[in-house]
Amino acid sequence: MPKKLLFVCLGNICRSPAAENVMNFLLQQRGLEGEIICDSAGTAGYHIGAPPDRRMQKAAKARGISMVGSARQLQPMDLREHDLILAMDYSNYHDILSLDPQGKYHDKVKMMCSYCRRYNVKEVPDPYYGGEEGFNYVLDLLFDACEGLLEALTK
Ligand code: 4NP
User: Fold this and answer.
1) Does the CB atom of residue 126 touch ligand 1 within 6 A?
2) Is 0.70 topped by the overall pTM?
3) Which range, of 14-18, 31-35, 82-86, averages the lowest pLDDT?
């Protein structure tokens, strides 16, 4: 049974689609497509239907990744339907848990940076209002976290 992962940020145009595309890139490199299924969503609905932010597309392209996807908002049923839900920051984490007041799926929700092995940080910061370097830093963190996550899921 393939594992279903859901990456979650605020707008679903910068961090979580980048996480989804980085993870799919690593899965493809390792011949593991189909074993782990990735999706992403935003806790907010501001950008529903929008493609990934151009600045994130550009930063990802420089690392050989053509980003795909369009923004959608996180729904309560996402907690039931995914095996693991990865929050980019604490605000996302609390917003995800607020969709599950009974705490039924609490154990499925993890902080993305808890899988980092090179970076000792707690959150993937929101790059939206910053410059280009913020997008590159997000990708550095996401490669680290996705590699750690992949190891945790496949060992
Ligand atoms: P994301 O970034 O949560 O990584 O997709 C943001 C995108 C949009 C906004 C904030 C963060 N916004 O305020 O519109």
Assistant:
1) yes
2) yes
3) 31-35
